[in-house]
Amino acid sequence: MTRLNDTQRKHVIETLKCHESVFASSDFSPLFSTGVTVSDIGIITHAMTLLREAPFLEESDFIHHGFSSRQIEFTLGGLDNFKQLLGVCDYCFQDWLAQNSDSSSNQITIPYWVYQRFSDDIRRDFMRDLILHPSLNVELDAKVKIGYISLFERYKAIIPSDDSEAAQIAAMMMADRHQFLSYDEETSELTLRSLKTRRDFSIEVRCLSSTFNRRTPHAVCVVDDVSPIKSTLIKRRVISFSELMLHC
Length: 248
What we know:
This protein has two domains: 6-86, no CATH class; 96-247, no CATH class. The chain contains twelve helices and twelve strands. The protein has helices at 6-18, 29-32, 38-53, 59-64, 69-75, 79-86, 93-100, 112-117, 119-125, 163-173, 232-236, 241-244, and strands at residues 108-111, 127-128, 131-132, 136-139, 145-146, 149-151, 155-157, 178-184, 189-194, 200-208, 218-223, 238-240. A hairpin with a 5-residue loop joins strand 4 (136-139) and strand 5. It is of the alpha/beta class. 38% of the residues lie in helices and 21% in strands.
């Protein structure tokens, strides 16, 4: 696979924009003469389609959609670079709201993945003292929609957006029963000591249960997004924030 340059990428993008029916009516021979291949055009076409529908997608999303890291780097020039070429690099939470919110409603509930993706924008524009604006909630599951994490009906904590934040808040949520000992950021494992038995144990903490990769006996996640068809053994060891909040 040959690495394209931005001039080649721009020429492909401009050609595709001029001929929306793409392969049916477009003449790509001028592109082929510059070293662009049919495969390159297919990759760029797919990338443009995805980003038109969801400009906020990240590299992990592209890999999920079948792209290889090599295709992203060599054909697209990196995802951030390709977004700039398309003119969608400045897509923000306000853009997402404009496309997805109901203008007739004063209350907006967003999926957790949206909160994660736009956490910087949301925290800057819709948060004060760790609490979201009353008009905005985050959905952790079908029954739990919140603007902050409640701790023992006395304190409020920010809704975490990454594994490190999730681990810190999980430790606080279990502080009435367990003493915090350490946190390994590389593995996202908390080591705690039971106040009742004085036994030490480790738990993996992630934002999403689908990203667990350790083999600790128990695991905590902000949102349990593992499909019901997954192994019940995996499901039994997972405790979500929604469940933890019932006991703190």
